[in-house]
Design a protein that fits this description.
about 50 residues, mainly alpha, 2 helices, about 40% helix, about 0% strand, flat
């Protein structure tokens, strides 16, 4: 099993500041990971669809 690392704290803080100023609903977890550059660290596993 691979060890996952988190994005640096300064990138997370910058992201949260941008989200405070942004209008609209919050992005999906996948979009947050993409914006933080974290998707490259996640295994390429298909997640089950979320139920509404």
């Amino acid at each position: 099993m691979s060890a996952f690392t988190h994005p640096p704290k300064h990138l997370v803080r910058e992201y949260l500041q941008r989200r405070k100023r942004a209008a609209g609903p919050p992005p999906t977890p996948e979009e947050i990971r993409r914006q933080l550059g974290w998707e490259m660290l996640m295994p390429q596993v298909k997640l089950p669809a979320r139920r509404s």
